[in-house]
């Protein structure tokens, strides 16, 4: 580093001189002497002293803080719109594939994905979130993390490939050896995408991420559906997973604009790795408790039962995942940028949580109210056996609308260790309840999962917000009005189904959903709109102020 004896900008802007000589007038003689001393110190610095290397444009975040509330709201809008498009594509593709394939095909791929999905999270190892959350980063640090993620992806591919015979032996399905080998090839692609995606999120470039996600989903379905139609069975679903991973990596790399350098041993990433390690541990535990039900059902009740359970599970929980994930992708970088501003942090958190609940809760409630018609219309009559499981998982889906309440605080306040400890106890309770009832069948497993998950929410939230600006009344305020509006909206929706038993399923479904939506919007629509517009105006004000300062 260059040794400066005064503030370099002092003579120009009238800032104090570091030697204690007082405030300097711009252009003064003393100011010129101070500037001269600064230049002399620079020239007399040791030969190895160099100026700090500026970070690349892809790592800079100063511009993100200006008007961050408005930027966050726009990001949420972009991500929710993207998820709406993706949800539509996924529902359409599920409807098509469900008619072209058999439950056994979904069950086979589901068996493998329980294991490969659990392993896949280690290709990230929490390092993407560490990159997003960390305030100051260098190119050397991110490059080293990039190579670590890539190496992990390759290592995991080899591990899963070696374990493929064990997967087939566990389920008693020899074909799973080849299915596992094919899906294992996606790990390196995922690993080499982690840091590029993290940098896009860090700078809140959500438009770019949205386009990449939609294109990769459409391209992968354009491959899978023709394969299913041609009679390739479960291989169509394998192709869906593999092609989406490849397409996503290529698109993210082209969009990011950042290229990694060679790995340097001097890059200090210990703190980032520690944060990522705790976060990865939490994600692993979350995966266990969210997928143990499918592991147990597949092992104890076979592919047919798992196929029915998996489709019901996906249908009821997919919407809330499609809402929580995109909003979380916005709020984690946004809250991380204001983590040292308590009032700003609490206000942004409260508004964001209200928006999450206001959007997610009515979707889940409407799906539960119209469950039989929804399953028949989307999947076909042969899947009506999934309706009881759909109902049993309903409470977990409702509680899932609030699931981000704890994780946002843990991550953005840098308390990954506390989050890991909380997840240890959650996993013990939820996994234990499912193990106890697994021999009673898939419906009992679904009920145990829902009950234990719902009971864990309050203590989890209390622990998450401890020693933070957020208070329990902030969470309560976000829940109350949307919940009451959903209860009121369910009344006319149920009445529509009761009084229209003989009409076409699609007509009954549309009438029920429309009546639910009208009542819900009447009770909670204006408040949601006001919260969104208030934050948007804040962003526009900051943007206008920035332009004025630039002109001045």
Protein model, in words:
The protein is mostly helical. The protein is built from 22 helices and no strands. It starts with 9 loop residues before the first helix and ends with a helix. The longest helix has 68 residues. Helix 18 packs across helix 20.
Structural class: mainly alpha
Estimated helix fraction:
over 70%
Q: H/E series, N to C?
A: HHHHHHHHHHHHHHHHHHHHHH
Segments where pLDDT lies below 50 for 5+ residues? 1-52, 546-552
Largest sheet: none
TL;DR?
By secondary structure, the protein is an all-alpha fold.
Task: Explain the layout of strands and helices.
Blueprint: H1 10-13, H2 29-43, H3 62-65, H4 68-100, H5 103-120, H6 127-133, H7 139-171, H8 176-184, H9 187-191, H10 194-202, H11 206-229, H12 234-256, H13 270-337, H14 342-369, H15 371-379, H16 387-392, H17 394-400, H18 404-412, H19 416-437, H20 442-464, H21 472-499, H22 505-551
Helix pairs in contact: 4-11, 4-13, 4-22, 5-7, 5-8, 5-12, 5-13, 6-10, 6-13, 7-8, 11-12, 13-14, 13-17, 13-18, 13-19, 13-20, 14-21, 14-22, 15-22, 17-20, 18-20, 19-20, 21-22
